Amino acid sequence: FFILATLFPMASKLALNAAVSELRFVLCQSSPSSAGTREFVSKSYEAIKKANPRLPVLIREAAGAEPSLFVRTAPQGVEKRLSLANLNAADVKKALESLAK
């Protein structure tokens, strides 16, 4: 874990609440408003999966899509959405932590 946190400081502490049943990132491949989301996903995806191996983490890319984070919780399947537009990677991590606590 220390090595992961050293290589990917944004990836530290990404073990999520057990009630979280799905994470979904929606982003545009080229839009400037998705830049922070793209950076966060590219640097943190592996660490999220290692810390939460059974959690589905979906990345949906679509031209012109507003960058968003969807968190689904079990058992009711309640889904929360948060816009990630124009956030930097550190703010995307904070958004994830706030929705997944």
From TrEMBL:
<keyword id="KW-0679">Respiratory chain</keyword>
<keyword id="KW-0813">Transport</keyword>
<dbReference type="InterPro" id="IPR007741">
    <property type="entry name" value="Ribosomal_mL43/mS25/NADH_DH"/>
</dbReference>
<protein>
    <recommendedName>
        <fullName>Ribosomal protein/NADH dehydrogenase domain-containing protein</fullName>
    </recommendedName>
</protein>
<keyword id="KW-0999">Mitochondrion inner membrane</keyword>
<keyword id="KW-0732">Signal</keyword>
<feature type="domain" description="Ribosomal protein/NADH dehydrogenase">
    <location>
        <begin position="29"/>
        <end position="101"/>
    </location>
</feature>
<dbReference type="GO" id="GO:0005743">
    <property type="term" value="C:mitochondrial inner membrane"/>
</dbReference>
<dbReference type="InterPro" id="IPR036249">
    <property type="entry name" value="Thioredoxin-like_sf"/>
</dbReference>
<keyword id="KW-0249">Electron transport</keyword>
<comment type="function">
    <text>Accessory subunit of the mitochondrial membrane respiratory chain NADH dehydrogenase (Complex I), that is believed not to be involved in catalysis. Complex I functions in the transfer of electrons from NADH to the respiratory chain. The immediate electron acceptor for the enzyme is believed to be ubiquinone.</text>
</comment>
<keyword id="KW-0472">Membrane</keyword>
<dbReference type="InterPro" id="IPR016464">
    <property type="entry name" value="NADH_Ub_cplx-1_asu_su-2"/>
</dbReference>
<keyword id="KW-0496">Mitochondrion</keyword>
<comment type="similarity">
    <text>Belongs to the complex I NDUFA2 subunit family.</text>
</comment>
<dbReference type="Pfam" id="PF05047">
    <property type="entry name" value="L51_S25_CI-B8"/>
</dbReference>
<feature type="signal peptide">
    <location>
        <begin position="1"/>
        <end position="15"/>
    </location>
</feature>
